[in-house]
Amino acid sequence: MAAENSLEIKPQVGIIMGSKSDFEVMKNAAEVLERLQVPLEVRIVSAHRTPHWMMEYAEEAEARGIKVVIAGAGGSAHLPGMTASETSIPVLGVAIKGSILDGLDALYSMVRMPEGAPLATLGIDVAGAKNAALFAARILSLNDPSLARRLSGYKDVMRATVRYDDGRLQEVGWQKYDPKG
Ligand code: RP5
Q: What are the two backbone dihedrals, phi and then psi, of residue 21, each rounded to the nearest 5 degrees?
């Protein structure tokens, strides 16, 4: 019903991945955005197995209210680049490590985009996925002061964690320090 639909929170970030095998990495991006209260959607969109669906997603994302796409893929990794080619909104690529070549194949594929089709490439695997989420949030925070405050709080927690870790290291001494403890 129209009244119900108007209350729906539209996703602002679209997280897409080439395969369900990318999920364990890409869910890290979703978790960061959820923590920052950024509305998101998570979809499986394969450049090679569902090329028409990929184009449809890229063509319609902006009109559906998506402001940034985070695209993760491994291997030849065409999804992020092709999505960046079709849409005008920012696309952030995450290279998935996969079972061979350590993710360098996907990373090189993403950083070799030709002039005119910009794809921001954030890195490989979990750190790449988390940083893609933080970068997406930074883009959105330019027009959202309360998100900017939440991002600042995220940094505060990070800083406090490092200071706590250092405090523990000093307390027990490096000879006895257990980083997992
Ligand atoms: C890519 O191929 C996907 O992004 C995935 O990283 C990789 C392997 O996919 P599966 O064979 O595991 O489905 O398109």
A: -70, -10
